[in-house]
Amino acid sequence: MNARTILKLFFISALFLLSSCKEYFITTKINSDGTVEKTIIVKQDKNDGKFEAEAWLKKEGWNVVLSADSSASKNILTATKIFPTFEAFDSALVLNAKGFVPVFTTRTEKHFRFFFTYFTYKETYKAQQFYKPMPVDRYFTPDELGKLKEGIDSAWTKNKLEEYNNYIMLDSYFEIMNREFLSKDKIDLNSLIPADKKKLLFAELSAPGKKDDEIEAVLKNYFGSQIALKIVEFSKTKNPEIENMDKTFSVSDGTYNNSVIMPGIITSSNSKIIEGNRVTWKFDQDKFKFFDFEMTAESREVNTWVIVVSSLLILLLLAGLLISRIRK
Q: In the chain, how many domains are there?
């Protein structure tokens, strides 16, 4: 029996072998006059298949250029667009991002405060549900959820999130398979295994190092020989739903270098990389796989014209006082 066909359905590492890893370089330039310049660069190995601009980029008037790197080993897509106002920028992207880069929202604001103008920017990559939705607050305990939301990069965090990812992935496959079995054989897998045992089953199937016979043994232990055989046979067939989920997952899989260039000087940001008036976040899909990932920056620009006008007014006032005293 082909181990890869079984792993395709039940073993986590198989999916990652199917997805292609892209490199995203995204730059947003916030201008004082209210315009926004956005550049999206995507790099992908030539061996990873078809590479072209998404339809929404062309439809919304982005300037798209396809090229290759100097070594000719990577395809490069560069998409640029200038938005006339902050409002146009914030409203346009939220409708179109899905399918090219993760679904994200932006909020760009400008506040005048006499001698200074403050600019604030927040970009949020929305948590992705590539598989059957299972709210994190139903899977994790309140204490676990609190620790995970703190974003501590530790072995415990990675293990917990991997455990959750394995569960929702396998549960999605399980439900698709169950519908097939109900339709063709009138077999309801959910009636054969309660929720608590399903969690144990998924944990056993996603344990690293499982061999063919061990996977089959696990399935036989939970469902019996006949049902286990049907599951193995099902895993050898192509299922459009499963393939579509795999494809959706691979769209966002990659590394991200997201930069924002702000007017004036940076006054605050949740980024650890600040160079002049540019802030940068470097991350991968894990940052927004289960929780929203927010990137914020604030800058301040001196209102030179206010200082000039204020200085002139002060001089005129002093001159008026001086003239009135002289006349006395």
A: 2
> What pTM was estimated for this model as a whole?
0.71
Q: Per-residue confidence at 247, pLDDT binned at 50, 70, 90? A: low
Contacts of 293 (CB under 8 A, 6+ apart): 124, 125, 283, 287
Residue 97, domain extent? 16-131+252-307
CA distance 56 to 93: 10
- Residue 174 within a domain: yes
pLDDT on residue 122: 97
Q: Are residues 107 and 149 in the same domain?
A: no
Give the span between the Cα atoms of 161 and 175, in whole angstroms. 21
Residue 99 burial (CB < 10 Å; 0-12/13-18/19+)?
middle
Are both 76 and 178 inside the same structural domain? no
State the Cα–Cα distance between residues 201 and 170, nearest whole angstrom: 10
Spatial separation of the C-alpha atoms in residues 279 and 295, rounded to whole Å: 10
Q: Which of 60-74, 171-185, 261-275 is the most confident on average? A: 261-275
Q: Per-residue b/e over 181-204, b at no fewer than 16 CB within 10 Å?
A: beeeeebebeeebeeeebbebbeb
Residue 20 to residue 254: CA distance in whole angstroms = 8
Query: What is the spatial distance between Cα 249 and Cα 202, in angstroms, rounded to a whole number?
Result: 20
Q: What values do phi and psi take at 76, rounded to 5?
A: -130, 130
Does residue 177 share a domain with residue 262?
no
pLDDT at 208 over 60: yes
Query: Of 228, 247, 266, which marks where a domain is finished?
Result: 247
My answer on whether 30 and 127 are in the same domain is yes
